[in-house]
Write a structure and sequence with these properties.
By secondary structure, this protein is mainly alpha-helical. It has a single domain, classed as Cytochrome p450-Terp, domain 2 (Orthogonal Bundle), CATH 1.10.230.10. 60% of the residues lie in helices and 3% in strands. The protein is built from twelve helices and three strands; from the N terminus they run βββαααααααααααα. Strands 1-2-3 form a three-stranded antiparallel beta sheet. The longest helix has 22 residues. It is globular, with a radius of gyration of 21 Å.
Length: 258
């Protein structure tokens, strides 16, 4: 019979073990949820500065208003009020290239650019040169630069400077954030216009600097947005909007034969 191993958790009749600790005796009331989420993925406890930056990222990604993912969740709950789990899942399934997925996309873009330049630059001029190369290479593909631009915050995403400031204050600014900051400086000369460094992008850079692999970054965006979606679903139960959204759309849709 096959044997499967896990270092996450286990339970028996009298105890629950999580990350090598007794859940009831050592963790409950002593470890916050943000710290636990970091610990579960990284397999190590975060330092205080790392935890402050990590939790700032989660808060930054939790909600952004009546986005398509929120609308999907609310409409699902309107159609299946007994299925909070289905509504929550519906909202999370929309986390892709336009919503939430940018966190992973930006982290991967930065990591790929950094892999091309080892050792990493030691001055702002060096970071700017690397940023120019990365932006030019991305532009040559015809695809947008991940982390640049925002449909609403066209003059600057208010989350971005705060995340960068926290990383600087806590001494956890790493190469991904340094390159992201340099992209903000140099991209206008290449693209011919100035775009904001968006919040999803800076969160991806920050998470990558905390040591998480880029393949898991979208998971943190979904973890954060799950809290926001749950808030919207609770509001949907208190003050329904899903049915009204459906009725408004239904009244304005006109059938056009193929």
């Amino acid at each position: 019979m096959s044997e499967y191993r896990t270092s996450i958790g286990d339970a028996d009749e009298s105890s629950i073990r999580l990350l090598g600790h007794d859940l009831a005796g050592e963790l409950l009331g002593r470890v916050g949820f943000g710290e636990l989420a970091f610990w579960l993925v990284a397999q190590r406890r975060p330092e205080p500065g790392e935890l402050r930056l990590f939790e700032a990222v989660l808060v930054a990604l939790a909600d952004h208003g009546f986005t398509p993912t929120v609308i999907a969740a609310r409409l699902t709950l309107a159609g299946a009020p007994e299925s909070v789990q289905g509504a929550l899942a519906a909202g999370l399934l929309g986390g892709g290239s336009r919503f939430l997925g940018v966190t992973e996309d930006c982290g991967r873009f930065l990591a790929d650019a950094l892999a091309e330049r080892v050792p990493h630059p030691s001055s702002d001029d060096g970071w700017d040169e690397l940023a120019r190369d990365a932006v030019r290479a991305q532009r040559a593909t015809g695809r947008p630069v991940p982390g640049l631009g925002h449909p609403l915050h066209k003059k600057g995403d208010p989350r971005t400077p705060v995340i960068m400031r926290i990383a600087d204050q806590e001494g956890v600014t790493g190469p991904h954030l340094r390159l992201f900051r340099a992209i903000g400086r140099v991209h206008p000369e290449i693209l011919g216009r100035t775009l904001p460094l968006n919040g999803a992008g800076v969160c991806g850079a920050a998470l990558a600097d905390l040591g998480f692999p880029v393949s898991i970054l979208r998971g943190f965006a979904l973890l954060a947005r799950a809290a926001g979606l749950l808030g919207h679903l609770a509001e949907e139960l208190r003050r329904p909007a899903g049915a009204q959204l459906y009725e408004q759309i239904d009244r304005t849709v006109r059938y056009s034969p193929p």
